[in-house]
Specification:
The chain has 279 residues and is α/β, with parallel strands linked by helices. Helix content is 38%, strand content 18%. It folds into 2 domains: 154 residues, Periplasmic binding protein-like II (D-Maltodextrin-Binding Protein, domain 2); 96 residues, D-Maltodextrin-Binding Protein, domain 2 (3-Layer(aba) Sandwich). The radius of gyration is 21 Å and the shape is globular.
Length: 279
């Protein structure tokens, strides 16, 4: 009986789906978020992502529900979903964009302004007592990052020390406070944390046991890109919609995804960081 009920439910759903205009189901208008920053998993972030995509669809004039998409905190999972689903647009971590943007035919449309900045920077934090005295002394040790790759860490955060970064035992931590506690307890030699954590370092419970060993350079914020398959008209419309999204009744939507605003950007704005990453 249960199987029959399921079939009876799915049949009308299938029929309705066939009658929905193709634009609603159009892959070239899908939008995937492949970066860290939201709380929880893909499933837990689902309602927040749905609200963002619906507001974006309304601003574009495509309508709520016209844009399909999900959030993937694991960039490798996100990369595979992009390849499988072939969306027209994506919000990417800088690491993912630098490593695979060319392969995916990514064209930068805008960049996210977060924590009041259109750029980001990472710091290496170690134990105040007994911690390494230099970046070189990190070689072979346990380092707790977010999702950044060894290449990103070495070529950008550690200023070209890719071999050193590849010698590290990189262990994922779900949030910066967990990473810093591990360092304070001696369970990791160092942690990579973002600028906004350093700005609020006085709020870190174990701050007295830690110090900043090194700071990386300023890097551009995470890009929003158009991918192969999206039309020229849709790309222009998407850029325009993003630039105005966080104004008026869209402000709360942007806050929900931890973005202050979107700023106009092009591939040229990422040329220097692409060069450094390619070392």
């Amino acid at each position: 009986m249960r199987n029959m009920t399921r079939r009876s439910i799915w049949l009308p759903v299938l029929v309705v789906g066939l009658l929905v205009p193709a634009v609603v189901l159009s892959g070239p208008r899908d939008f995937l978020l492949c970066l860290t920053g939201f709380p929880g998993t893909t499933e837990q972030a689902g309602p927040t992502v749905r609200g963002f995509l619906d507001k974006l669809g309304e601003r574009l004039g495509w309508g709520a529900g016209a844009i399909q998409g999900d959030y993937y905190p694991d960039t490798q999972v996100g990369l595979q979903r992009i390849k499988d689903r072939k969306p027209g647009f994506a919000g990417m971590s800088l690491d993912l964009y630098l490593a695979h943007g060319e392969e995916l035919g990514a064209q930068v449309l805008a960049k996210a302004v977060m924590h009041g900045r259109d750029k980001q920077r990472y710091h290496i934090v170690v134990a105040k007592e007994g911690g390494p005295a230099s970046v070189e002394a990190l070689a072979g040790k346990v380092l707790v990052p977010f999702r950044e790759s060894a290449r990103f860490l070495g070529n950008l955060v550690l200023d070209g020390r890719r071999a050193l970064a590849e010698s590290l035992d990189l262990q994922y931590e779900s949030n910066a406070m967990s990473a810093l506690r591990k360092v304070a307890r001696g369970q990791a030699t160092a942690a990579v944390v973002a600028e906004e954590i350093i700005e609020r370092f006085d709020e870190v419970p174990v701050k007295d046991q830690l110090r900043v060993l090194a700071a990386g350079p300023w890097l551009p914020g995470p890009p929003v890109v158009a991918l192969t398959g999206s039309s020229a008209d849709d790309r222009t419309a998407m850029r325009t919609a993003l630039l105005g999204l966080c104004a008026g009744d869209g402000a709360e939507t942007c806050r929900s995804i931890r973005v202050d605003s979107f700023q106009a950007a092009t591939d040229a704005d990422y040329a220097e960081v692409r060069r450094l990453f390619a070392r």
